[in-house]
Amino acid sequence: MTRLLIMGGSDAGISEALRVHKLDPQAEISVLSADKYPNDSICGLPFYLSGETPDHRQLAHRTAFDGIDILTNHRAVVIHPVGKRVDVVRGANGRAETMRYDHLIIAIGATPVRPQGLPGLDLPGVYLLHTMADSFAVHHHLTMGEARSALIIGADYIGVEMADALRHSKATFSYARWTRFAYLKNSLGFLPKKENYLCDWRADGLALNCSYLPQAEPRNRKDWKQALACIVAVPPRRTWLTRVGHTWLLSGHAGLLEHIKLAEDRDVADRAALFQNKAASA
Ligand SMILES: Cc1cc2nc3c(=O)[nH]c(=O)nc-3n(C[C@H](O)[C@H](O)[C@H](O)COP(=O)(O)OP(=O)(O)OC[C@H]3O[C@@H](n4cnc5c(N)ncnc54)[C@H](O)[C@@H]3O)c2cc1C
Description:
The chain is α/β, with parallel strands linked by helices. It has helices spanning 11-23, 45-50, 132-143, 157-166, 192-201, 224-233, 246-250, 267-281; strands spanning 3-7, 28-33, 68-72, 74-80, 85-90, 95-100, 103-106, 172-176, 179-184, 205-209, 238-242, 260-262. It is 29% helix and 22% strand. The strands form 3 sheets. The protein has a 5-stranded mixed sheet, with no helix packed on it. A 4-stranded parallel sheet has the order 3-2-1-7, with helices on one face. The radius of gyration is 23 Å and the shape is globular. 27% of the residues are buried. The mean pLDDT is 81. Bound molecules: flavin-adenine dinucleotide. InterPro entries: FAD-bd_OxRdtase, FAD/NAD-bd_sf, FAD/NAD-binding_dom. Residues 3-169 form the FAD/NAD(P)-binding domain.
């Protein structure tokens, strides 16, 4: 029986473990996770911090790992490639043990850049955002009511998402000529305040996240039922669904209503048509 040892219990490590288990159900698969949150979606941290996903456990992509031994709080510290062994430190008490493998996969993610020569990174109130533990520290600060303002260093995707989260995921509104277009980035349902505002604002176009076909229990992203509830609550003339999961894409867009589309590049042309139709009927 092949022994596969995977260092890292997040997206890369777990997807590798699931794939190997599917291809070789007899393989003995162990996953080491330095933290205790296997397969949590750190992509969802901004939504946890905005309050839209209030329970961080909902960030887990899955909680059952059939045929895979998940070892949480197990940090690999030394690899011995010649003897095919890894030294592992277990739990807070730091008990060390050695694990053997036939194949080893390293999937321990990236380390955020801590700019050299930038004093103050360790001061109270200064946070990195990468791990669940990082997000708990920010969450604690926010819930203590200590934060009156925030400065985000890093203005790419995660920085912008966090800016949105700290404003409690308020919608981005824009006016394109005489139409009103709302882009909502929230992950699950609406916050009631936002729903009321959107109803009053009467958007012509709406873009919102909808990742899945109807699920029994949607976890970290809206499914079709939740998205439809949002659309019915507003309701706009036309809706584009973004962040659509690949299973849905492959299913041929089944079950969508005429005025609801999966967002694609050619929507630029469709939006132009929407504006022209509106002008013609005005
Ligand atoms: C706030 C935020 C928002 C994001 N949003 C998006 C998004 O919207 N879309 C997108 O595509 N991507 C997004 N990303 C990026 C995405 O989350 C990462 O690309 C993805 O998590 C990488 O997965 P990974 O498994 O390689 O590493 P990680 O998710 O970093 O996981 C590393 C794993 O290795 C473990 N580990 C580390 N060291 C050891 C060790 N020595 N021994 C054992 N285990 C160890 C950790 O405990 C963890 O389980 C976002 C990231 C952040 C931080």
